[in-house]
Amino acid sequence: MRHFDMEMTELKKKLVDMASSVQQMIKISIDVVVKRDKELSKDVFSIEREVNLDEIVIDDTCLKLIALNQPVGSDLRFITSAMRINSDLERMGDEAVNICETGVELLEYPELKPLIDIPKMVVIVTEMVKESIESFNLSDTELAQKVLEKDDAVDELKRIILKDLIEYMIETNDRSTVIRAMNLVSIAKRLERLGDHATNICEDVIFMVNGKDIRHNNRSN
Amino acid sequence: MRHFDMEMTELKKKLVDMASSVQQMIKISIDVVVKRDKELSKDVFSIEREVNLDEIVIDDTCLKLIALNQPVGSDLRFITSAMRINSDLERMGDEAVNICETGVELLEYPELKPLIDIPKMVVIVTEMVKESIESFNLSDTELAQKVLEKDDAVDELKRIILKDLIEYMIETNDRSTVIRAMNLVSIAKRLERLGDHATNICEDVIFMVNGKDIRHNNRSN
């Protein structure tokens, strides 16, 4: 294996490792919300510090790979896609931190029974995140396309969750209910954004493999 | 001027033009909300189509510039920063579209008098966006730093707006008030994200000019 190829494999490994940290952050953040366990939130913050470092190291690796090897074609597309995926992963980590913080805020109040369709949304979004990374790792554009197709379902679920929570706020009009419902709205929106980042990664994978920019074709914005 | 330098100047111009379209989208979206004028929303959608095209063209230009010129050092940093700023600008356009759509939804209801501190937030965020682009255009890291320092004020304003809107929902407990207040919450969050994108651009400018990655130093996430 050429030295350059070894470095490219190493870059891919770094991104996949970072992605697995981000997935862990998402999982724990949701546990903070669902299991109402504040202790877990510490782990989210400590993994975030690692992910933030990963982002800087990976960007630096990419710049050096370009500067020292002058790649073209698919190699260059791989490196620039890696930079973009790197940035999406870091922002996914930020979303997880936000979900976690909202989860901690919710602990100040008694549990609001109806989590509505949030668990359903968690299942789809978690799947999208996992598959987007898998599609990158395996350069699997079919899988990437499958993920893109799930985005509408997530948007629709968020719409229903918002509607249900608004109804709930109107029916049970006390301060604590409104605050808790607002926090759940915030979590639903963060989940939607996690799904958006997963679709960004998939678009990058398709561009990386096919050299075809499909952004703004497959979805409305 | 070398051919390469001319192309770099051209790339910068493309980004600044795209940025001015995005600024226009933001301005019109806010007008849709404040002036309650649905007609204006058409302009937002038509500029969005241009911005989406700009994004693809700029990324393509960047890749070609790297592949054909094998830049290193500050030139390479400029191009990769341009790719990142490109992506932030496009996402800022998405935020504007969302503000605009929320503004249109609000037209279904009578005006909710207290826009609370939203106009104040608009002023700061609009300024941040303008200055972030100016800092890129002039490679002005001092200005970039100034923008970064405004981010806390935006976060604080958003916090106050949310608190005020929750109070308002609790006091005036009818369906229409709750829905309108929720829409204003959504707009405040979109404004906050516009500010976040502006800070991303500023971090890129500082990296581009100084070669120093300041992400995760100057702010909490």
Question: What's the layout of helices and strands?
Answer:
The structure is a homodimer of 221-residue chains.
Chain A: H1 3-35, H2 41-69, H3 73-106, H4 118-137, H5 141-171, H6 175-210
Helix pairs in contact in A: 1-2, 1-3, 1-4, 2-3, 3-6, 4-5, 4-6, 5-6
Tell me what the structure shows:
The structure is a homodimer of 221-residue chains. Chain A is mainly alpha-helical. Chain A has one domain: Up-down Bundle (Methane Monooxygenase Hydroxylase, Chain G, domain 1). The first copy, chain A, has six helices and no strands. Chain A is elongated and about 65 Å long. The N and C termini of chain A lie far apart (41 Å). The model of chain A has no long low-confidence stretch (mean pLDDT 93).
Q: C-alpha Rg of chain A, in Å?
A: 19 Å
The CATH topology of chain A, please? Answer: Methane Monooxygenase Hydroxylase, Chain G, domain 1
CATH evolutionary superfamily of chain A: Phosphate transport system protein phou homolog 2, domain 2
Count of beta strands of chain A: 0
Along the chain, the helix and strand elements of chain A come as: HHHHHH
